[in-house]
Amino acid sequence: MKISFKLDAEFRDDQGKGASRRLRRLGKVPAILYGGKIDARALLLDHTRLSQLMDNERFYSTILALKVGDQSQAAVLKDVQRHPYKNQIMHIDFQRVLEDEKIRMLVPLHFRGGAEAIGVKEQGGVLSHVRNDVEVTCLPKDLPEFVEVDVSELGINQVIKLSDLKLPAGVEIVDLLARRDGPVASIHMPRIEEEEVPVVDEAAAAAATAGAPAVPGAPGAPGAPGAPGTPIAPGVATAGAAPGAAPGAAPGAAPAGDAKGATGKGAKEGKGAKKGDGKK
């Protein structure tokens, strides 16, 4: 069994949220080690050292050696809890590894030949990575650090699936064992974005036209003859008024003389009516 990383650890007896907060303030990371047909054990790791190791991709998919005093235990990383916004590791889980017991691990995919792929170089397509890792099961001695995916022969509109991957001896893909064969990478034509043609709302256009300012001098425009609110010059009769009508009279108005006569006649009749009423 190949050991890729060694990490010093300490046993810890204080557990709980309060104890974990105190340990984090001291630059420590609470951890747990379980599996291997042995009871789980709480551990304590150095945050600075752990952060340095976790910058390496291989740390997540290889066998680690946890050393506590004179004891050393082979293990694999199973889970990491990080702070929501701080660069801080909150908690980490390890699983014990036994030489004769199969383990399940997420292994990264390394893509090769993307720039030289037939569908990209000759046919103008775009390479898409559908997934970046795959879960495998195997004995610890057979665990690969990564799985290589060769896409150099991939043409336009072609797909590489899980069943097409070449695996080392003794390594199996968990999804294939469950009869789930999914895509890994594909090459497709680039999408062409069409320019959006602005849609003109007829109702809005009609409303904008109706609310547009009128041309000066046009019928109905401000200042035009007969337009509402347009002042009438003294001595100028309104168009359509009868000859002799008073200046500014409405269209169809009677001459001024007739109006005076009618007014006087009506006044005399009114006086007569009042006298008659009084005699009665």
How do you describe this structure in short?
The chain is built from 6 helices and 14 strands. β5 and β6 form a beta hairpin. The relative contact order is 0.09.
CATH fold-level label of the domain at 5-97? Ribosomal Protein L25, Chain P
**How much is the average pLDDT?**
79
Structural class by helix and strand composition: alpha+beta
State the helical fraction: 10-25%
- What name goes with the CATH superfamily of the domain at 5-97? Ribosomal Protein L25, Chain P
CATH class of the domain at 5-97: Mainly Beta
Q: How many β strands by DSSP?
A: 14
Describe the structure.
The longest helix is centred in the C-terminal third of the chain and has 24 residues, at 256-279. The protein has helices at residues 17-25, 47-54, 118-121, 174-177, 202-210, 256-279, and strands spanning 5-8, 10-11, 28-35, 38-46, 64-68, 71-82, 89-96, 103-112, 126-129, 133-138, 147-150, 159-161, 172-173, 183-188. It has six helices and 14 strands. The model is unreliable at 235-241 and 256-280 (pLDDT under 50). Among the domains are: 5-97, Ribosomal Protein L25, Chain P (Beta Barrel); 104-188, Ribosomal protein L25, C-terminal domain (RNA Polymerase Alpha Subunit, Chain A, domain 2).
Secondary structure elements and their pairing?
Layout: E1 5-8, E2 10-11, H1 17-25, E3 28-35, E4 38-46, H2 47-54, E5 64-68, E6 71-82, E7 89-96, E8 103-112, H3 118-121, E9 126-129, E10 133-138, E11 147-150, E12 159-161, E13 172-173, H4 174-177, E14 183-188, H5 202-210, H6 256-279
Parallel strand pairs: 1-5, 3-7, 8-11
Antiparallel strand pairs: 2-4, 3-4, 5-6, 6-7, 8-10, 9-14, 10-13, 12-14
